[in-house]
Amino acid sequence: MLSSFKLFLLVVSTILEISASTRGDFPYYHGDYKTFELVHPFVEKSSAQEARLQFNAFNSSFVIDLIMSRVNLTQNLPEHCDHYESKSQVSMATVSFCSGTIHAFILDKTNTYSLIPLDNEKNEHIVYRKSDLKYEPICGNHPKSPSGNRDEINMKRLKRSILQSRPYGTHKKTRYIELFLSLHYKIRNKYTKNSIFDKEKLDRDLSILMMNINKLFTGIDIFIVLTGYEVWNKYEINVLSDSAKTLKNYLSYRKSLNKKHYNDMGYFLTDKAFANNVVGRATKNTICSDSNSGGIAYWGDHHQTALTIAHEIGHNFGMEHDEDNEQCKTSKSIMAAKADSSDSIDSAKWSKCSREELENAYFRRFDICLHNLPKVNAINPKCGNRILEDGEECDCGTEEECLSKCCHASNCTLTAGSQCYNGECCSDCKFRKVSTICRDSTGECDLPEACSGKSQFCPEDAFKTTGYPCAENSSFCHLGECVPDLNAQCKAMWRGSTSDPQCYATIRIGKELCGKFDYATKKYEICNKENYRCSPLMCLHNQESSLFLTDTYRRRNFKYRHNGKFCSLQLYDVGRQARDPALVQIGTSCGNGRVCVDDKCVNASLVASSCGNCSGKGVCNNLNQCHCDKGFAPPLCNKHGGGGSLHSNSLYAYDEESTNDRKTTIIVVVIVIILFLVFMGVGIFFAVNRVYFDKVQRNIPFLNSWRRKSPRQWTPNTANSFRGKTISNPVMRRSSNKQLPNIPPVRPPPPDFKKAVPSPTAATHTYQNTQEISDKPVISPKPVVSAYTLHLRNENESKLTVC
């Protein structure tokens, strides 16, 4: 009975398949597979960010736990899908929910599955297995094709850290490929129904394609950004079954395309199968070449197309097929030349050999155009996708995955009392203090950045502008680095070689091709007398091979002998956005106080002072702002402050209010000290000149009226009178240091009025003790202010004691 039931299911399945195929709602690549299964998948969403996909196919039950993807790496492409990734580390899956339909790409330990919706309203989906393909997909590149002089050079290995997976836009070592797609005009027919082109459906499929491509590159820290696409209305190139000729035709077409749509790489997608089961082909070692960076791929199952494009981009980086390397000969990774029918999760990984070849590509500067960060669209701007968007205070993911105590995962608002939830300038849910250094200087040409106290994010990296001297004034700064001299540049390009002035002396001004390539005119600039040292890097060497790039990048090669020495000048094609590494680097010294800028030799001081002289207290940064020294404030560095710039914020703690208080205190103290010194000086001056000022005072009646009346001082007018009574002329003597004998006072005898009154000039005075004071007439000296003081014993005394 069981066998009869199985037979019944087989018959029903066959009927459904025949019915579906006759309806014409299968994808156009349905014929590529030998078998398939119709399913009705079930989706359960546990939250806005998490879901579970379930379906049964090929005698297996599929249960896949999913989490929403963070970024849709497309530009100007409307988004109609919610993209999810598998949580499991054992398997890999990318799932897109688009207007009620499901697109899934699943890899487990044994096989690869594609879940595709049928074009009907019955929620019918079809499942393909890669092992059921009618053909074995093959890369069109020759297995043994050369990849430059890799084996000849003992290359220095880069640190493995550059190949680690990181979130989009979070690390300087991340590479970004700006991809442009050209779609064959027959693909337009696949998306046209009743003469109406369904652009929305094509946008959806391209979004799914980019989702799957980037899933394959996340393990090596590379992001592929779709900058644009075009769908042809006619034959733009001759598409042949020969993949090599078709690739050549497309790369020739791409040269004209680059003028309208800049890109790092272009790929042509066609629904036409190539000969010998070839599904893709690409040039090697051409990742940034303006003329050769690109490839072609068969547009079939979107998920298989993603694997093909990832494989061919590997060739653009210089990767070889794993079969060509003994260490990875048995590998079944992305760079396998043939897609094995037993492909599993390993087919979506990069082998050890591929990673090492990618490191070599980076060392040889193949990635020279891949460091700029393109702007991309965020998927589903909503709370819970861990992307901080307009209207959100924070976004820590779903409630299940949010680990932040600062953020409410349910509504993306900060918790009570929180100011922030992450970032270099956020600590324990609070903004870090003003002037907290969040990015220190990495060298003498770099500048530090500090927290503002108002944001959780550290400012973008800033550095000294081009032209500031460095390396003990032997070189100049450019892009935050001290530019090496010509000798070092030659050694980097040609290993053991150096720069020789004799090589430059051989340049014929006005005739040689010295400058960079002009993509508009397709010509090189001509040498001139003023700037020839800033265009070609001319090196003296022994005909060594270039350490960087390969012959696929070379446009011009000049080698000649001069006075028995070999000189070399080479120019390369590295795309429109990158600078040819064979040109003299910007920031190179080209004379006394002069620097190379944009292939011109200019005054370094003029370049370095693009924002002014910053009051002599700072330097100009790359944003043309003054970066002030400690103790001075931007924007002009003419006021006191904490240093830094308007961009980098204050670098040192500086409290303006307390500083003003300190200033006020200092001013008050200084004023008090000055006043004290003034009063002290005046006092000392008057003390030293007291005699003089007393004399002046007596000669001025007004001042004399204010003199003190007690004790009375001797003056010529009062010399012979006291309280209106006339006394005999006193004999005034200067007091000496000798101490007079202590003689008690004795009342003198009454005057004898009968005797003649003595002459004033002959007056004689004696003491009662009969000791003669003076027996000679004394002439009264001229009165001196405050030199003597007269003391009278009483009103009746006529004796005058002089002290």
Descriptive labels:
20% helix; 23% strand; 9-stranded antiparallel beta sheet; alpha+beta; Collagenase (Catalytic Domain); elongated
Question: What's this, in brief?
Answer:
The protein has 803 residues and is α+β, with helices and mostly antiparallel strands. It folds into 5 domains: 8-132, no CATH class; 138-378, Collagenase (Catalytic Domain), CATH 3.40.390.10; 381-422, no CATH class; 469-641, no CATH class; 711-740 and 761-803, no CATH class. The chain crosses the membrane at residues 666-688.
Low-confidence stretches: 8-23, 144-171, 760-774, 784-803
Structural class: alpha+beta
Oligomer: single chain
Supply the CATH class of the largest domain.
Alpha Beta
**Strands ordered across the widest β-sheet:** 1-10-9-8-7-6-4-3-2
Q: What is the domain total for the residues?
A: 5
Tell me the overall shape. elongated
CATH superfamily of the largest domain: Collagenase (Catalytic Domain)
Tell me the CATH architecture of the largest domain. Answer: 3-Layer(aba) Sandwich
Radius of gyration computed on alpha carbons = 50 Å
CATH topology of the largest domain: Collagenase (Catalytic Domain)
Number of helices: 12
Terminal residue distance: 157 Å
Query: How is the biggest beta sheet arranged?
Result: 9 strands, antiparallel
Strand percent estimate: 15-25%
| Mean pLDDT across every amino acid position | 76
Number of strands: 44
Secondary structure: helix percent:
10-25%
